[in-house]
Amino acid sequence: MQSVPSHRHVIAADIRTQISTGRIKAGERLPSEARLASQYTVSTAMLRSALAVLQGEGLIEKIHGKGNFVHHPRRIVTYVGGGRRAKPESPAESALRISVRTTSLPAQGQLIGLLRVSADSPLTEYFCLSHEGNSPHSSARIYVPRDLSPTDAPDESSCFNCIETQLAELRPPLSEVRERVTTRRPTPEEAATLRISSTLAVLAITRVAADSTGRVVEAAFLVLPGDRADAVFTTHHMIGERGGEDDG
Amino acid sequence: MQSVPSHRHVIAADIRTQISTGRIKAGERLPSEARLASQYTVSTAMLRSALAVLQGEGLIEKIHGKGNFVHHPRRIVTYVGGGRRAKPESPAESALRISVRTTSLPAQGQLIGLLRVSADSPLTEYFCLSHEGNSPHSSARIYVPRDLSPTDAPDESSCFNCIETQLAELRPPLSEVRERVTTRRPTPEEAATLRISSTLAVLAITRVAADSTGRVVEAAFLVLPGDRADAVFTTHHMIGERGGEDDG
DNA sequence: GAGTGGTCTAGACCACGAG
DNA sequence: TCGTGGTCTAGACCACTCA
Question: pLDDT tens digits, residue range A83-103?
Fold first, then answer.
């Protein structure tokens, strides 16, 4: 158990404090690594490993050739499970800009099992990418059997956790939404798409929704960066729903 | 991105292949770092950073003074949300040995808000640690108002996701179970307790359960290592429940 | 004490970004 | 071209495990 508190964690803690106390502000560039290394009288390698700790926490962003930057205070966006819409009251939610790319493809691999369709049956893929300001926030790949997919482009404002909402308007209500949550490192593509460090873990949610006939109407793969997203699942509706949540 | 495929990832991929193809078997020790470094003709520092990649994936376990060991094929244990019991049919579940430590403490910090009790009101903490064979698997800290906590020791076999199950026997059924899922790095204590790398992300679940009167009867903090656990949340019971899940 | 991993140094050289 | 971060080396020294 870490009987040696290792220099890098001391340095990381110091920089972390400087960030949280506002001595280094959001968006600002840190001194160069060489400079910081001499300040702390360590080698650049050690200083870099200290920064790697902060990077894994999503506190800083490293940009090759430019410098290390303090991330803007990550607004925690909460994904609401169970096929329910996040309340629009959430200001963070409304600040998300979502782009959708629609493609067609035949069912392959795990999609066959998840959607319970036969191989090569036609599917529609919606690749949703949400942005918070300039920077990408999270991504989702949603697969729907072709005959169920709306002919017109999906409503962008309600793409993220709500393809099933759209479908609900057309079909009988969903009887089951099953969501499997895992955590892992992002793939190189995901890290590039979401512009996150490959050392920052993501929440990966696999969602399968079925209607009352048991037919699977949607399979979705969501990727949420661990530093700026969480997920909430609630069973049994509450009688008097509350607003503020104080889980600090 | 990643125009330079960096040597360490090549080495990591090579060792990963050797593990997955069985050339190095589970539980076995890898050659020493110095030996591997000379095999790949890299410095020990680079070789160590390659191993760090595998460590972050939960593939290997580093033991100071002994060596690097291939993890036993991690049995994925699924946490079932919504206050529902995991089906006992699951072989992995039955292989879990759970120890419980009970302590009393006054309500403090976020517990006050989560449990909706006044400060310093008496609580009972159940610290549950599940083991799979010799090694710890996951941990849970469960807090229950003193007047609701069973006087006798909790049923060890049903500790993990089911303090509420015990309570359900005594009280009206739960009206709401709310679970917030996040991912983060383990704290040093958690890393030590669960014997995982501090670079391996964990799933952290905060669970709050209320009974039909709206009273919060339980707050729980679960920590599941990301390489050997996932969580499933299902809404609306299915008519014909299925057993096998093929999501590979 | 021999062998292991853990920390750390003081560099070299390469790749990227901006002027 | 210059300053930045990214990769990597060839060591030294320390801490842990086990015989």
Answer: 655 444 444 445 677 888 899
Q: What is d(CA B122, CA B118) in angstroms, rounded to the nearest whole number?
A: 9
| B64 nearest nucleotide via C1' and CA | C5
Nucleotide nearest to B4 (CA to C1'): C15
CB of B6 lies under 7 Å from some atom of strand D: yes
- Report CA-CA distances (Å) from B95 to A155, B17, B133, B205, B232: 47, 29, 7, 22, 19
User: Using a CB-CB distance cutoff of 8 angstroms, which residues of chain A are in contact with residue B65?
Assistant: none
In chain B, CATH 1.10.10.10 covers 7-70
**What amino acid occupies position A229?**
A
C-beta neighbour count of A246 within 10 angstroms: 8
Q: DSSP state, B158?
A: G
Measured between alpha carbons, how far is A224 from A205 in angstroms, rounded to an integer?
A: 8
CB A57 within 8 A of CB A71: no
Q: What is the pTM of this model?
A: 0.84
Residue in A closest to B190 by C-alpha = A1
CATH superfamily of B77-232: Chorismate lyase-like (3.40.1410.10)
Rg of chain B (C-alpha set): 21
pLDDT band at B242 (very low <50, low <70, confident <90, very high): very low
Which residue does chain B place closest to A82, by CA atoms? B235
Q: Are A214 and A175 in contact (CB under 8 A)?
A: yes
CB contact under 8 A, A202 and B183: yes
CB proximity A65–strand D (7 Å threshold): yes
Reported as a pLDDT band with limits 50, 70 and 90, residue A4 is: low
The whole-angstrom distance between A58's CA and the closest CA on chain B is 10
Positions of CATH 3.40.1410.10 in chain B: 77-232
* DSSP string for B173-216: PEEEEEEEEEEEPPPHHHHHHHT--TTS-EEEEEEEEEETTS-E
- Distance, angstroms, CA A43 to C1' C11? 10
CB contact under 8 A, A201 and B179: no
What is the architecture of the domain spanning B7-70?
Orthogonal Bundle (1.10)
Largest CA distance in chain B: 67
